[in-house]
Design brief:
Elements lengths: L4 E4 L5 E5 L18 E4 L4 E2 L2 E2 L5 E3 L16 E5 L7 E4 L8 E3 L3 E6 L6 H11 L17 H4 L3 E4 L2 H42 L6 E4 L4 E3 L2 E2 L8 E5 L4 E2 L2 E2 L3 E4 L7 E4 L5 E4 L8 E3 L7 E4 L2 E6 L4 H9 L1 H12 L10 H5 L2 E4 L2 H41 L6
Parallel strand pairs: 3-9, 15-22
Antiparallel strand pairs: 1-11, 2-10, 3-6, 4-5, 7-8, 7-10, 12-24, 13-23, 14-19, 15-18, 16-17, 19-22, 20-21, 20-23
Helix pairs in contact: 3-7
Length: 396
């Protein structure tokens, strides 16, 4: 470890660059929707990675007004306001060529002769758990740049940096591949659903209500519940079929919304702000899993759960459900179970439903197997990360 150097970020071989806040910075309404340069806000930088689903485009005419904040390949973007510590790595895997950042984040640009770019990214990934220590403010948490520069990091020789980054990158690449496989499987199922049940729907198919084929919120915790400790899934931890995390609670300390019990292949859809897409299918749940009462739990007693899932989660239905929620009298835009039950669809023939169910079941079996492998790889990566970055585990 004698060849490792411990330095403050202010003295490390990197630059910390702020977004442009100067007099030439244009206001939001000056940006064109059809320009050529992506303009990132903090919501476009997630826990680990960029999210380009809602971006603004800077017009070519206005581009000369943005004199700072343009990303270069191998930059790391770090959010310093709001949700502090989110990271994006602008490497060759990011398809866009020209990206600029807003305020509320900084660019970390390594001196590549001394600091390997991927190692630089993993350095800040390791620091994510420490950023809250340096964060100030409650209404709008922020990490001042002067405080960021005081954080210490350990830097090994360049060849060891590359070896460490190679180990961690190989795990991330495998995780990314499995996620992409799952996205492909789900998109294929969506395409088949649309072809069979929308484009090829027949006029003589009976129009029916979803509530006649499902049970809603079938089971909830009661006095006979046998477990003292639960694993809790809240609405924010399930997005587009992906579970981020579960929270462990003693039953007497659990949130008041920890009420719903679930079965294999139950469909969950959040009743609050449906456009945020907090939905998914439960696969072989652990015995003490409890989900938020903010979900509608749909038990599909007479129809394929994957048919119901795809019926409720396509873009058109999401917009429709959100419009219903927006018209509610609740504090937040929300759905009632009766809104879900009242949804109508054209009922296909039994054989067509059975054929679709088999194909969809096979796809989701593969999806869930991939998720289990993803969880194993993520656990291995997260255990290795601090050990590799501190030199506790050596690769050279």
């Amino acid at each position: 470890m004698s060849e490792w150097n411990t330095v403050k970020l202010a003295d490390a071989p990197l630059e910390i660059l702020d977004g442009d806040r100067g007099k030439n910075y244009p206001s939001q309404d000056e940006f064109s929707d059809y320009g050529y340069c992506l303009f990132l806000s903090t919501k476009n930088v997630r826990s680990i990675g960029f999210d380009f689903s809602e971006c603004q485009f800077v017009s070519k005419v206005r581009d000369e007004l943005l004199r700072k904040g343009r990303l270069q390949r191998n930059d790391v973007v770090l959010t310093t306001r709001g949700t502090v510590g989110n990271l994006g790595f602008f490497n060759d895997k990011v398809g866009y060529e020209k990206i600029r950042i807003n305020s509320g984040m900084v660019i970390i640009r390594p001196d590549e002769s001394k600091l390997f770019p991927a190692f630089n990214f993993y350095t800040f990934r390791k620091l994510q758990s420490d950023f809250l220590t340096f964060t100030s403010g409650s209404a709008q948490p922020q990490l001042p740049i002067r405080d960021l520069k005081e954080i210490e990091i350990s830097i090994p020789p360049l060849e060891e940096q590359k070896a460490i980054a190679s180990v961690l990158s190989s795990l991330d690449d495998k995780i990314d591949l499995l996620h992409r496989q799952n996205n492909t499987l789900e998109r294929m199922a969506e395409t088949l659903f649309r072809q069979w049940f929308v484009e090829e729907a027949q006029e003589d198919w009976e129009e029916v209500k979803l509530g006649d084929f499902i049970e809603i919120n079938k089971k909830s915790i009661n006095k006979t519940y046998p477990f003292n400790q639960i694993e809790y899934l809240d609405t924010g931890s399930l997005t587009e079929g992906k579970v981020d995390s579960l929270q462990s609670y003693m039953i007497n300390e659990a949130p008041s919304r920890a009420l719903r019990l679930v079965e294999h292949n139950d469909v969950l859809i959040s009743t609050v702000r449906p456009n945020q897409k907090h939905y998914g299918i439960i696969n072989n749940p652990i015995e003490n899993l409890v989900v938020s009462s903010g979900f509608c739990v749909l038990t599909c007693t007479k129809i394929s759960p994957h048919f119901v899932y795809l019926l409720l989660t396509n873009n058109e239905m999401t917009e429709y459900l959100h419009s219903i929620a927006e018209g509610s009298t609740s504090t937040y835009p929300s759905l009632k179970p009766s809104d879900i039950a009242a949804i109508t669809f054209q009922l296909p023939p039994n054989q067509k439903l059975a054929d679709f169910a088999k194909i969809a079941n096979d796809s989701w079996d593969k999806i869930h197997k991939n998720y289990k492998q993803i969880q194993t790889l993520e656990k291995l990566r997260d255990n290795l990360l601090p050990k590799l970055m501190s030199g506790e585990v050596r690769v050279i």
